[in-house]
Write a structure and sequence with these properties.
The chain is mainly alpha-helical. It is 70% helix and 0% strand. 48% of the residues are buried. The N terminus is likely disordered.
Amino acid sequence: MSVEAKNITSNSNGSIPAITGDLDHRDALHIFPDFMKPYRSTIIAYGASFLGTTIGFPMDTVKTRMQTHKEFASYFDCAAKTFKAEGMKGFFRGIWAPLISTSCSKSINVSIFSLCKPYCHDLIYQHDDDMTTHPIIKNIPVCFTSGMIAGAGVSLFASPFEFTKVFSQISKLVERESVHKVNLSSASTLATFKKIIKYEGPTGLYSGFRYHVMRDSLSSGIYYSIYETFKYSINQLINSDPSTNSPIAILLAGGFSGITCWTLVFPIDTTKSLIQKDIIHNIFRKRDGLEPHPLPERKIRIERSLYRGLGISVTRSFIVNMVFFSTFEFLMGHIA
């Protein structure tokens, strides 16, 4: 059954349709051949995520460097020093891994969420015949559960690419700290993969996975809950018909969903980045024949230092998610 059909099924039992409404085939641009139509939403989500990832990646690089290194006094200081030392390439170091993985992860995440949502609704409300409860109230636990399933599932695929991205983003800084000798040449994504496997084994690609899956499952649950709640409410306020999507509702809901989920899970993300920094540090020591340092035990603590880089991260998330959802919903409504 297609995502559009699933959405209609979901809506008929009192739930809000997953992410987007129905396609108007009369005004749509028909470009997908029949064999690709079942994967239409997945392909569109990939393209929208590809665009958003490219736009937001320089800010993501500054965020990761702020999280893992205290030598930068501010975001501007971090950006200025990165540009001085590495040029514009420094902001896009490691972009190929997330362009592949983040775009794939996002499209898979959207598809899993959309497909899981009707089943989660039926499971949660299987003995609930009360149709008077407001759709938003009924929708939140369904969104959160479906989002957590989607986030946890995608993290199995995304974790190696995420570690590779972090490795590329901070490798020059860590290399200078650990061995005081920096190789100024840029390693390709494949070379970074090989280096991690060489010194840490295949499981090294999943360094920090426990915190990765925790971050992705919680953030996806929060992300979709906020997005659908905001979009439905703003549509209802503007159009008096929440099923009619307003571009303003999509932009604001996309932006605020990104801000909210990142603010709540940011300490988990910082803890993951610090764990990965320690492992990268030891990879360089092993490469140069030095003994690796014992890995410190990392625990999530809600404190100020774990929010270093939050400002630019939520700015990036606001912009990226506005771009993603506006692009995704527009294409879903106009391309068949």
